Amino acid sequence: xxxxxxxxxxxxxxxxxxxxxxxxxxxxxxxxxxxxxxxxxxxxxxxxxxxxxxxxxxxxxxxxxxxxxxxxxxxxxxxxxxxxxxxxxxxxxxxxxxxxxxxxxxxxxxxxxxxxxxxxxxxxxxxxxxxxxxxxxxxxxxxxxxxxxxxxxxx
Length: 155
Known about the structure:
The chain has 155 residues and is an alpha+beta fold. The protein contains 7 helices and 4 strands; from the N terminus they run E-H-E-H-H-E-H-H-H-H-E. It has helices at 12-22, 42-61, 75-80, 100-109, 111-118, 123-126, 128-135; strands at residues 2-4, 28-38, 86-98, 142-154. It has a 4-stranded mixed β-sheet with strand order 1-2-4-3. Helix 1 (12-22) links the parallel strand 1 (2-4) and strand 2 (28-38). Helix 2 (42-61) runs parallel beside helix 4 (100-109), helix 2 runs antiparallel to helix 7 and helix 4 runs antiparallel to helix 7.
């Protein structure tokens, strides 16, 4: 069973028993989410970080965090569920290639940003205009390092 970028949105009191129900003895549960993106170009990356910060501020000011993640995912939460005989937390990274269009696309793929824009925030308020300008400097694909938290539970 896997949960990609999603476990924090699920209610632990109902999701863990369901995971336990469908996993066979010896089965593995894996949840993961990215937590950092790094590129070799500081200007687009700085604008990316600025967009993330503005997104948090604007969501809070508009009261959109009522639908914030239900809980922080952690190894302890997996252990507390009682569904796993062993748990582990890892930090991994991947190296991918991306250009400026992909960086802007990544920002626009985040549900917390799309719901903010749908609630009336402008791209300028969020800083997407500045991200687009900085992203133009990434004409050719460059290496990106994307860090992931990974949680594993063994039934």
